[in-house]
Amino acid sequence: xxxxxxxxxxxxxxxxxxxxxxxxxxxxxxxxxxxxxxxxxxxxxxxxxxxxxxxxxxxxxxxxxxxxxxxxxxxxxxxxxxxxxxxxxxxxxxxxxxxxxxxxxxxxxxxxxxxxxxxxxxxxxxxxxxxxxxxxxxxxxxxxxxxxxxxxxxxxxxxxxxxxxxxxxxxxxxxxxxxxxxxxxxxxxxxxxxxxxxxxxxxxxxxxxxxxxxxxxxxxxxxxxxxxxxxxxxxx
Length: 236
Hints:
alpha/beta; TIM Barrel
């Protein structure tokens, strides 16, 4: 039985705004012609299970949502997180420090050389981001899994001395950066927002005009093995 995918396109550079495009065909079994683009679905073969569906919590989204009337804000959150009246999102992500959907660069510990993290504070997140996540958790009823990713360490931890446009984590900052993740998790838990998981770095090979930090696969492996993994074990 032939089936098709419905395709809609919105493009910044052009006139397309949710423009309906021709359907894309799907075939069961072999594609009709090796040169044609297709999606082949073999229902007899299974791989890993899907953990969940969701979206991202960002400072920009939280601040924008905070500017609309309370009843509309509630309507938006229910549309995403209410398991009966909405989509019932079950897996979401947020950012450690600022990201490209923040209002500007910021870190939880911006004091240069603060290896003891004495100045660490998530006060900026408490203004808009944390309340949005907390309300979404309440609406969801049973909660959802939330994981966090950094776009960049604080500027003073990097070889370039800035959060934007790549750069790398300074070797002498690997341990304090691992403790930073653990501190972030504890502070968010105090706010009623449990962190289910982490990734070492958002887009680790990208040098972006915004917050970014470059890792090789081996560097990520070594950071988890020698610092972050050990730090999490100590905290547990």
